[in-house]
TrEMBL record:
Compartment(s) of residence: Nucleus
SUPFAM superfamilies linked to this entry: Homeodomain-like (SSF46689)
Regions of compositional bias (Basic and acidic residues) in chain numbering: 167-179, 200-210, 349-363
Name the UniProt record assigns to this protein: HTH myb-type domain-containing protein
Residue numbers spanned by region Disordered: 62-81, 134-214, 323-384
Any one Gene Ontology molecular-function term assigned to this protein's record: DNA-binding transcription factor activity
Length: 384
DNA sequence: TATCGAATAT
DNA sequence: AATATTCGAT
């Protein structure tokens, strides 16, 4: 108490004024009652003490109003320190310091309701504090990340908050979760898309934001491979056809195209790593006389798991376990679906260029068993 | 115009 | 490394 008196004198304030000042102080820091519980408590105690000093009786500052945060100050002035410990506990239970950020929304609401007359400083607090990352808004369930809205590729432009999103972008890698990603054409929250996303006139303040990255889960990739197989291989298949066969809601041509491009790259060049001149065998085709033949190594790789005698473990290429390119589609999806027979593009390239893998079908090297190919695509796990 | 595939960009 | 976007060609 002495302490207070001294302060007062220094400030040239009377008890009433000092109390008032303290109360104001308290009001100010109330916003931080969560971060500075002790400070809050201290001021509270001070007020209490002063009041007692002033009136000689126990006062209830609580009556004044906003006291949400750790009210129980009622306990007279005992040794302040003793109070500290309990304070923390209390914090979580009091309305003001409701800890569990679990739900900012609800919290907000609650606040709104509770505050009505109070100055909504509390609300504001949560708002800006949030922006400062002291609290993180409940992270979205991982699954959410996985199954984004189908129709529209929602850009994560959203709001400023997005800036910190990276936190959530966790890697929920792997199978289990992945499974749900696939979209038997419906899994993808079609309803949501139709309602919320898509056409909504206003929304999209997307601006130049980039598309949300399409995550190629294993399932998705499986579908991709399957489609590829049906279309007779990566070379004959075109993005659009693939997309149609995959029948995945929300999947776009561009996405497939991109994936296809990557797939093709992986497929043909396992590891473009500095081929030391010692083993230039990386080339899929070798010039013999005036014709190109598939090089053994490449054949091995091409047929993926079927790496027979040629143990050229040429790579982590296995990653993309190329589906053995079938000369003919296993099953034509539907007449219209495939307008162009898988041989539409004959780049007429007998060139030095090493492309046209599609042709090696006739080659003896080609994986002879269709089963191998299918199994391949099943077992092969994309690097994801 | 719609697609494609390669080249870039992020 | 994995996707997205751009660009030129069909």
């Amino acid at each position: 108490m002495y302490f207070f008196t001294e302060k007062m004198q220094r400030l040239k304030l009377g008890f009433p004024d000092y109390i008032q000042a303290l109360e104001e102080e308290r009001r100010k820091i109330q916003v931080f009652c969560k971060e500075l519980p002790l400070s809050f408590e201290l001021v509270t105690q001070a007020i209490e003490a002063c009041r007692q000093q002033l009136s000689g009786t126990t006062s209830e500052y609580n009556l004044n109003g906003q006291s949400e945060c750790s009210e129980r100050t009622t306990s007279s002035e005992g040794p302040v320190l003793e109070e500290f410990i309990p304070i923390k506990k209390r914090a979580s239970s009091s309305p003001c310091c409701d800890e569990d950020d679990e739900d900012y929304e609800q919290h907000s609401l609650r606040q709104t309701v509770l505050n009505e007359n109070n100055n909504n400083s509390d609300k504001r607090k949560s708002d800006w504090l949030r922006s400062v990352q002291l609290w993180n808004p409940d992270p979205p369930a991982e699954e959410d990340a996985t199954k984004k809205v189908p129709g529209m590729e929602l850009k994560r432009s959203g709001s400023g908050g997005g800036a910190f999103q990276p936190f959530h972008r966790e890697e929920r890698a792997t199978k289990e979760t992945e499974t749900l990603y696939k979209a038997p054409s419906s899994t993808r929250v079609p309803a949501a898309s139709s309602s919320a996303g898509e056409l909504t006139p206003e929304k999209n303040q997307n601006e130049g934001q980039r598309k949300q990255r399409r995550c190629w889960s294993q399932d998705l990739h499986k579908r991709f491979l399957h489609a590829l197989q049906q279309l007779g291989g990566a070379d004959s298949a075109t993005p659009k056809q693939i997309r149609e066969l995959m029948n995945v809601d929300g999947l776009t041509n561009d996405e497939v195209k991109s994936h296809l491009q990557k797939y093709r790259l992986h497929t043909r060049r396992p590891s473009p790593l500095v081929h030391n001149n010692s083993s230039p065998q990386a080339a899929p085709f070798v010039l013999v006389g005036n014709i190109f033949v598939q090089s053994p190594e490449y054949a091995a790789v091409a047929t993926s798991t079927a790496s027979r005698e040629v143990t050229t473990v040429t790579a982590p290429a296995g990653v993309y376990a190329p589906v053995a390119t079938h000369p003919k589609p296993v099953s034509q999806p539907s007449a219209d679906s495939i307008k162009k027979p898988q041989f539409k593009k004959f780049k007429h390239s007998e060139h030095s260029n090493s492309n046209e893998r599609g042709h090696h079908s006739e080659g003896a090297v080609h994986s002879n068993s269709p089963t191998s190919s299918s199994s391949t695509h099943t077992s092969a796990s994309p690097g994801y």
